[in-house]
């Protein structure tokens, strides 16, 4: 949520500062606009990552960060817990 809040703050920075009587450098406004777009992109990428992770966990799949077992496990023996 912090990314979205920061992106909203940077969105239209020149217009917001002009309302307060502050003339912002055009380069600052351009950089703020680009950073705002990158923050929005990062937020959407993280959202997609969370949805894919939740979908994998929902169907009983292993989390992406846990490696598969090293070899075949004999029938009936419990798998060791790995971290």
Spans of at least 5 consecutive residues with low confidence: none
Approximately what portion of the residues adopt beta-strand conformation?
Answer: under 5%
Describe the largest sheet: none
Average residue pLDDT: 81
Structural class: mainly alpha
Tally of separate helices: 3
Helicity level, as a percent range?
55-70%
Instruction: Give the overall form.
Output: rod-shaped
Q: Span from first to last CA? A: 29 Å
Number of strands: 0
Helix and strand run: HHH
Rg, nearest Å: 23 Å
Question: Could you write a compact summary of the structure shown?
Answer:
With 83 residues, the chain is mostly helical. Helix content is 59%, strand content 0%. The two termini are 29 Å apart.
Jot down its keywords.
single chain, 83 residues, mainly alpha, 0% strand, rod-shaped
What does this structure look like?
The protein has 83 residues and is an all-alpha fold. 59% of the residues lie in helices and 0% in strands. The chain has 3 helices and no strands. The chain has helices at 2-10, 13-19, 26-58. α1 packs antiparallel against α3. The mean pLDDT is 81.
Topology readout:
Blueprint: H1 2-10, H2 13-19, H3 26-58
Helix pairs in contact: 1-3
């Amino acid at each position: 949520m912090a990314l979205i809040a920061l992106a909203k703050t940077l969105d239209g920075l020149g217009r917001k500062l002009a309302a307060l009587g502050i003339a912002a450098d055009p380069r600052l406004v351009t950089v703020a606009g680009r950073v705002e777009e990158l923050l929005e992109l990062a937020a959407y990428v993280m959202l997609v990552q969370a949805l894919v992770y939740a979908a994998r966990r929902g169907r009983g799949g292993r989390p992406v960060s846990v490696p598969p077992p090293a070899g075949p496990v004999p029938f009936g023996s419990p798998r060791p817990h790995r971290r």
